[in-house]
Amino acid sequence: MNTEIRALEPKSVWNKFADLNAVPRPSKKEERVIQFMLDFGKSLKLETFKDEVGNVIIRKPATKGYENRKIITLQSHLDMVHQKNNDTVFDFDTQGIDMYVEEDWVKAKGTTLGADNGLGVATIMALLERTDIPHPELEALFTIDEETGMTGAMGLKAGVLKGAILLNLDTEEDDEIDIGCAGGIDVTATRNYKEKLSGIGAIAFEITVKGLSGGHSGMDIHKGLGNANKIMNRLLYSASEKFRVRISEINGGSLRNAIPRESVAVVTVDKAHKDDFLKEFNSWSATIKTELKVQEPNLTIGLIETKKPKRVMGSRTQDKFLKAMYAAQNGVYAMSAAMDDLVETSNNIAKVKVANGKIHIGCLTRSSVNSAKLDLANTLKCTFELAGFSVDFSGEYPGWNPNPNSAILKVLKAQYKKVFNEEPKVVACHAGLECGILGQNYPDMDMISYGPTIKGAHSPDERVSISSVQKFWKFTLDILKNIPE
């Protein structure tokens, strides 16, 4: 399997990536990949251990002549986002990722690829295994559960790491050096409702919104991509206002950090309104597709008659739910005043589940400014509480404050220009990197983040540039040769 991947250069990286992608590694179910990494480190006869939360640490002595250089901590996360196309048959708990090459890109067949952050992991594995690469003492930190809470980074205690410099290999543009990131907080709104019997003269329809691009809810939030939950709510609001359509079920989105690509709802409408409803629905759908034709050319909105459910949501609850969803902020909330073209604060309405008398709405709010993050979270809290929801905050993690005077930043900037004959872009990102969390217990550690070019992370369109991985590998080797004493 994945023979063509193993033939790519640099072979040591791609072979480790293929090995890693054969191991199922969903967030919060990392037992197999943790054992895989422990076995790997021990097979090399390197100091290898697991901390109390499941992070794996492997240490490798410096090569001759580099013993007096600063110790480098190389860090990547073991888990990956599991997303697949609706028509893809795949079990993430048991199957390895099926990869293929298309021009300069490595992709997966109908699923996420796991290049985020598997190529960082694979690169560190290659450095640990190779014996012909000059480097200072290396300390590999493989964290768990980055994608659904960063609990690995949060659980790493002070005093475990020895490194003076941390290289986080989780940035997704190969011409960027990242020195800051956004923090985040989960905002979850829930409420119960009394179900009512479907009307005697009612018929039922299944509404589907699919074909959206999806993507990373931080890195892609500024692109104006369609959010399946907001599109579905817009349709339901219009249908409820004009035809008293009643909601039985909604299932939209999945992961908190992925822009939702699909939503499915079952509704009822009075049979007497069927023809008018179908006509209006087609008009609303055409309007939405026209609005999003540039960003979302593959968007489809479907409507088919289906078996009538026994029960639906009460009209008062439905009215409050739809209005709260319409009012809730989704997408970019504020741009940074400190850095050009950087999103400061945003929200992703990631999950909407309605069934059996329960409503669950899950959001991920991000900001590089902690007070702004909490301000937007409170805005959402008030919006949903006015509609009778209970709102909980959880999973809060800090941002990473940029340090433009970082010593390792100076090294990377100088070596990038020397190797590639151009200036790198020094940036902060709107994604959540583990550097901010790790910096709480290691405040004196000098941190930087960089990586190969990855597009479509957190979606089945995820792909990584082959030539970019070659560039990334070359840059990494050069960095390790130039670490100061």
From TrEMBL:
It holds the Pfam family Peptidase_M20. It is an enzyme of class 3 (hydrolase). GO terms for molecular function: metal ion binding; metallodipeptidase activity. Residues 208-292 form the Peptidase M20 dimerisation domain. One of its GO terms (cellular component) is cytosol. It catalyses: Hydrolysis of dipeptides, preferentially hydrophobic dipeptides including prolyl amino acids. SUPFAM superfamilies: Zn-dependent exopeptidases. One of its GO terms (biological process) is proteolysis. Keywords: Cobalt, Hydrolase, Metal-binding, Metalloprotease, Protease, Zinc. Its cofactor is Co(2+); Zn(2+). Its EC number is 3.4.13.18. The keyword Hydrolase applies. NCBIfam families: aa-his-dipept. Belongs to the peptidase M20C family. This is Cytosol non-specific dipeptidase.
